[in-house]
Amino acid sequence: MNTENMIIIDPQSDLEARIIIALKDIYDPEIPVNIYDLGLIYALSIDENALVTLEMTLTAPGCPVAQTFPIQVADAIRAVAGVSDVKLEMVWDPPWSVERMSEAAKVALGFFD
């Protein structure tokens, strides 16, 4: 077998890419931008058993969906094929700010550097 032109796909990075796609399908209920581009995801890691650990925040600690939104996010990740489970932690430090948004999100919301 000639392996010279083979493309090796890292299953871990493929799973991470699919998780990010799932996160980009979840929109903040008050801002018309997905939570990934909005910068609400602070950390994402996957261990060797496909346990996903996610640190996320909300735009404000008093957000009206603070109790239900993390459950929605965790459920969306669990629905990604290959994920064994999700450990989601809400973090408030550092506080979310506009600087965390992607360029696409800033353009969509009319923010310019």
The separation of the N and C termini measures 52 Å
Q: CATH topology, anyone?
A: GMP Synthetase, Chain A, domain 3
Q: What is the CATH superfamily? A: Fe-S cluster assembly (FSCA)
Please identify the oligomeric state.
single chain
Beta-strand content estimate: 15-25%
Q: Given the structure, what is the number of helices?
A: 4
The residue ranges in which pLDDT falls below 50 over 5 or more consecutive positions are none
The major sheet is characterized as: 3 strands, mixed
Order of helices and strands: HHEEHEH
- What is the 3D form? globular
Number of distinct beta strands: 3
Sheet/helix structural class: alpha+beta
Describe the structure using short key phrases:
alpha+beta; GMP Synthetase, Chain A, domain 3; 4 helices; 30% helix; 113 residues; 3-stranded mixed sheet; 3 strands; globular
Structure description:
- With 113 residues, this protein is an alpha+beta fold.
- It has one domain (11-106): GMP Synthetase, Chain A, domain 3.
- The chain is 30% helix and 16% strand.
- It contains four helices and three strands, in the order H-H-E-E-H-E-H.
- Strands 1-2-3 form a three-stranded mixed sheet.
- A hairpin with a 4-residue loop joins strand 1 (41-46) and strand 2.
- The protein starts with 10 loop residues before the first helix and ends with a helix.
- The relative contact order is 0.19.
